Every structure is written in structure tokens, then in C-alpha cells.
């Protein structure tokens, strides 16, 4: 029988083949290489067959996935939920993404007009300029202006197509427009022909189409007074004002005063005329000098947010009162104030807003003269937890005066340690017998006052002060407690690593949820705690060990 492996006995030895054997060796090598090539070909074919069968099996499995069996109404509910949860200006838009998954999803998305009601526009000119100009040492930008304008034009045309597509797919449903447009700050001092009016005209015509109904319009504009594309977007709410618009939000920041000529070049007679709109809610944040260009039915507003667009833009308490005098029927109001700590408020004429139920102050705490002038007898909710810059004592300041006047009527109250000292907070809590929702925020770095600065020197003093404020809220069988009707408590605390603060929180929950508490003290249903520095122990476990129901108690990392 022929040996299947010739020369096997000579492998891995020092054997020297003869000339005849060398010829045999070459023939054997060629023969084996043919065998190897055949095996390789078979392996390639097997791999191909495996891939084909694996892909086929995968596609078969895809046919049986649960999502395919979802009814259209359930699938639409998911679409709407994704749309509601999406962050502003997602790329791509959730409705657009859904319409590109498969034929069924596309048919469902395109056949549901409510998925296309929210139109979002984002155009930051600085990012467009960076694409053209980049980072260069030369200060001469003239060679880059034309390419930059060309890129801006293409961006506006793209936005125009986006708006047209959403309008078409919304099938006449009332639309919501949210736009963020920031001018190029690097060109604000340059002088060249203003091309924006012509560029913006096609989009303006599309927005002002009488067949379109805009129910909500929100604009965040950063304006370069010398040459502004962003300012042209104010033409949108004007075009929408007679088309059923009910809510408008406008935030306008300008690097300097906008010349009157610029207003008149962009808006009819230089006015943002919204008198035809059926506005119930209006948010307008811009410098007071620019507010004179706003025309609206102030006396019909029930919800108003106004004031400084940024901390660097001044908006005085006197100016706020002048705006409030135009709005006798307000129910909800938020005011953004910004002024120097050295500002001395002049005597202010009295103003009564008889319908105002909720007031929020953001920015700088107004002086006591502001609170003395503003009479709000129907006040039910007062929020000052985002007001900083002034630390008031128990006998001075606007917040304490409001609480003293209206505390028995208040149902909701929010305050920060940056606007009231702890004694002042304690004094305020004594005047809140019917409060149901309370927010207390502690931040030792929110003010430059000597009082707050002293807190930053000691972690213990910060936490001790927090505990001192919380302790009077803990029910005592003999004396009761402050805020006995409290149901909801939000705490923005600084440091959770100190036992005194954590003990006060645990005692507060335990006693306000005790079955033995006095009938005059309401059960604390909700407690939300945010810590800048996370606690060293778990309050929820402490409550569990005490046999206290911890449902409704949540702990999180503080965002600010």
C-alpha cells in the first residue's frame, strides 16, 4: 500500500535529498498546495453559506419582534412620548427619525399631523462664521464676508424648507415655533451692507402665510445692533399675531443699545406690534429701553415674565413697576431684576394688582421700597429662591415685608439663603401658618456679603445653620411646629456630610409622618432633597430602621 506521506521518515532531520528526490519533493509540494487551495475554496463557500443562512435567520427573527405586533395607537403613543422627552433641537427631529425607520412607521408618522406641530429653528451665526473664517491671525475679514453670507443664505433656505415641510405635514394644526438665533459677535463693529432683510424675506413670507396658525412663538435672540439677522426674527410674532397666537416668549440680548433706525429698518414703524394676538401668556426679556418698541394688549395678559435678559443687562425695580402698571389683570408674574448693589431706589408710587396670585423674583432681590409700593392682596405663591445678591435681616427687605403682609394667605413659598439670613428665614416661617409647599435653598457662595462669606470658612457652620432652620419645622408635642399645614418640602442643601443636618431631616420626616402627631399638623407627603455634597449616610435607610414610611422621599445631586 502506497505511503500517503512520502518522505515522512526524513522530516525534521538532517537528511539531504538526492536530485531525483528533489524533483519528487517539488511535485509533492505542488500537489499539497492544490489540496490546500481546494480546502480554502470550500471554506469560503461554507462561510458564504453560513453568512447567508445567518442573515436569513436574523431577518426571520426580525419578523417576530414584539414591536412589529404593536398596534398603531400604541406605537403612536411611543412617538408622542419620544417627542415630549426630546431635548430642544435634536438632530434629527424625533418625528423625522421615526418617518425614516420603515414603510409602516413612515406612513404612520406622515399620517399624524400632531407629530409635526413643533417647529424648532437654531441658527448661531458665530458657528457659521467659524466654518468660513476658522482661526486666523489676520484681522482683515473682508475676504471672508461673502462666503459667510453665502453660508448664511444656504442655512436660511434650509430652515425655510424645514418650516415648509412641517407646515405641510401638520395639515393645518396650530403650530408652535421655537427659534434660537444669535448674531455673529465678531462682526458687530464691522460696516458692510446689511443683506439680512432680503435673505429673510422668503422665510418671512412662509411664516406669515394666512393659512398657518401659530399658537405659541418662542424666540431667543442675541442681537448685534449694527447688522442683525436675529432682529429680523421679530417679524415672526408680528406675522403670527393675527393668526390665533396665544403665547409668546421673547428673550432679546443686545451687546449695546439698538439704534432707532435699526428698529425702523426691520419692523413696521419700529414697533413689535402684537395687539392683534390673543395673548394670555407673554414672556418678554429685554432691556427696558427696548421695551418701548413692544405694542400688545397688556391689560388682557394673565401670565407675564419680563425683565433683564442676562445678569449683565440692567433692569431696575422702578422700571419693573412701570411695566406692571400696564397689566392690571395679571395672575402669574415672574420678574428678572438686575441692578448694582449700590443702586438707591427712589420713592415709588403705590400700585395694586388685585388678581396677582403668584410672584417669582429672579436675579437681584428688590429693595424694601419695591415691596412697599407693590400691593398684592391675592398673593398665594411667592418664589425668591433664585434671587441673590442681597442678604436681608429680619426687619428689612422686600421678602420679609411680603411674608409679613400676606403670609397667612400664602400656600407656596420659596426662599434662598442668599436673599435672607437664617434669622430672617425663621421669622418668615413663623408667618406662614397655612403654607402647603415650601422650598428652602442654601448656598454659601450665592452672595458676596460678609455674612455669606463667613459661612464658606466653615463646613460645620453651613450645615449647622441648615439644621437650625429645619428644627423649628419638626413637630413637638408641647409647642407644635412652624408651618403645620406643610405637605410638600423641597430642600436645596449644601453639605450632606454633617450629622446635625441629616438628623434634623430624619426627625422631620419621622415626626411629620407619625400617627401620634397632633391633628393640627398635616402629614408631610413629599420631601425632595438636593445636596451639593452628597450625604455620608443614607437617610432612607435611617427612616427604614425607624419603621418610617419613606415613600415620597427622594435624594438627588444638586444641579446648582
Topology readout:
Layout: H1 19-63, H2 72-85, H3 94-98, H4 103-110, E1 118-124, H5 125-133, H6 142-170, E2 175-182, H7 196-207, E3 214-223, H8 235-240, E4 247-254, H9 260-266, E5 272-273, E6 281-285, H10 288-291, E7 294-295, E8 303-307, H11 317-324, E9 332-337, E10 351-352, E11 358-364, H12 368-373, E12 374-375, E13 381-388, H13 398-406, E14 412-416, H14 422-430, E15 437-441, H15 450-455, H16 459-470, E16 488-495, H17 499-512, E17 526-533, H18 539-545, E18 553-557
Parallel strand pairs: 1-2, 2-3, 3-4, 4-6, 5-7, 6-8, 8-9, 9-11, 10-12, 11-13, 13-14, 14-15, 15-16, 16-17, 17-18
Helix pairs in contact: 5-6, 6-7, 14-16, 16-17, 17-18
Give the percentage of residues in beta strands.
Answer: 15-25%
Strand order of the largest sheet: 1-2-3-4-6-8-9-11-13-14-15-16-17-18
What's the total helix number? Answer: 18
Shape: extended
Q: What class, by secondary structure content?
A: alpha/beta
What's the Cα radius of gyration? Answer: 35 Å
The total of beta strands comes to 18
N-to-C span:
89 Å
Contiguous low-pLDDT stretches (5 residues minimum) are 447-464
Overall mean confidence score, pLDDT:
84
- Largest sheet, if any? 14 strands, parallel
Helix content: 25-40%
Amino acid at each position: 500500500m502506497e505511503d500517503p506521506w512520502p518522505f515522512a521518515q526524513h522530516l525534521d532531520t538532517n537528511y539531504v535529498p538526492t536530485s531525483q528526490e528533489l524533483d519528487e519533493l517539488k511535485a509533492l509540494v505542488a500537489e499539497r498546495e492544490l489540496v490546500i487551495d481546494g480546502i480554502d475554496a470550500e471554506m469560503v463557500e461554507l462561510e458564504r453559506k453560513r453568512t447567508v443562512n445567518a442573515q436569513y435567520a436574523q431577518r426571520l427573527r426580525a419578523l417576530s419582534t414584539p414591536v412589529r405586533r404593536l398596534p398603531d395607537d400604541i406605537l403612536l403613543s411611543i412617538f408622542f412620548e419620544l417627542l415630549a422627552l426630546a431635548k430642544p433641537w435634536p438632530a434629527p427631529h424625533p418625528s423625522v427619525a421615526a418617518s425614516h425607520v420603515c414603510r409602516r412607521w413612515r406612513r404612520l408618522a406622515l399620517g399624524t399631523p400632531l407629530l409635526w406641530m413643533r417647529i424648532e429653528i437654531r441658527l448661531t451665526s458665530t458657528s457659521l462664521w467659524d466654518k468660513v473664517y476658522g482661526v486666523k491671525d489676520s484681522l482683515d475679514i473682508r475676504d471672508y464676508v461673502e462666503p459667510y453670507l453665502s453660508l448664511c443664505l444656504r442655512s436660511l433656505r434650509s430652515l425655510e424648507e424645514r418650516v415648509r415641510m412641517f407646515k405641510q405635514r401638520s395639515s393645518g394644526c396650530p403650530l408652535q415655533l421655537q427659534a434660537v438665533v444669535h448674531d455673529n459677535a465678531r462682526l458687530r463693529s464691522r460696516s458692510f451692507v446689511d443683506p439680512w432683510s432680503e435673505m429673510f424675506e422668503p422665510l418671512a413670507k412662509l411664516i406669515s402665510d394666512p393659512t398657518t396658525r401659530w399658537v405659541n412663538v418662542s424666540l431667543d435672540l442675541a442681537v448685534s445692533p449694527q447688522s442683525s439677522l436675529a432682529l429680523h426674527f421679530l417679524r415672526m410674532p408680528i406675522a403670527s399675531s393675527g393668526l390665533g397666537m396665544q403665547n409668546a416668549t421673547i428673550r432679546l440680548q443686545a451687546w449695546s443699545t439698538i439704534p432707532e433706525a435699526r428698529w425702523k429698518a426691520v419692523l413696521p414703524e419700529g414697533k413689535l406690534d402684537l395687539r392683534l394676538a390673543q395673548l394670555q401668556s407673554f414672556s418678554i426679556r429685554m432691556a427696558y429701553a427696548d421695551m418701548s418698541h413692544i405694542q400688545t394688549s397688556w391689560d388682557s395678559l394673565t401670565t407675564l415674565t419680563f425683565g433683564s435678559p442676562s445678569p449683565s443687562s440692567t433692569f431696575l425695580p422702578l422700571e419693573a413697576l412701570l411695566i406692571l402698571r400696564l397689566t392690571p389683570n395679571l395672575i402669574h408674574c415672574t420678574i428678572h431684576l438686575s441692578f448694582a448693589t449700590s443702586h438707591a431706589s427712589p420713592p415709588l408710587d403705590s400700585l395694586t394688582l388685585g388678581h396677582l396670585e403668584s410672584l417669582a423674583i429672579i436675579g437681584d432681590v428688590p429693595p424694601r421700597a419695591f415691596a412697599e409700593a407693590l400691593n398684592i392682596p391675592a398673593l398665594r405663591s411667592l418664589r425668591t429662591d433664585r434671587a441673590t445678591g442681597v442678604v436681608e435681616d429680619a426687619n428689612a427687605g422686600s421678602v420679609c415685608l411680603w411674608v409679613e403682609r400676606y403670609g397667612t394667605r400664602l400656600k407656596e413659598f420659596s426662599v434662598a439663603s442668599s436673599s435672607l439670613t437664617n434669622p430672617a428665614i425663621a421669622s418668615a416661617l413663623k408667618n406662614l401658618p397655612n403654607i402647603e409647599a415650601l422650598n428652602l435653598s442654601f448656598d454659601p457662595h450665592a452672595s458676596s456679603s460678609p455674612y455669606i462669606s463667613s459661612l464658606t470658612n466653615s463646613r460645620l457652620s453651613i450645615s449647622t445653620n441648615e439644621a437650625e432652620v429645619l428644627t423649628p419645622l419638626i413637630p413637638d408635642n408641647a409647642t407644635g411646629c412652624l408651618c403645620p399645614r406643610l405637605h410638600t418640602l423641597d430642600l436645596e442643601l449644601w453639605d450632606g456630610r454633617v450629622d446635625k443636618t441629616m438628623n434634623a431631616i430624619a426627625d422631620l420626616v419621622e415626626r411629620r409622618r407619625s400617627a401620634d402627631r397632633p391633628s393640627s399638623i398635616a402629614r408631610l407627603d413629599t420631601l425632595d432633597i438636593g445636596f451639593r455634597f452628597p450625604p455620608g449616610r443614607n437617610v432612607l435607610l435611617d427612616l427604614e430602621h425607624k419603621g418610617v414610611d419613606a415613600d415620597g422621599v427622594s435624594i438627588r445631586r444638586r444641579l446648582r
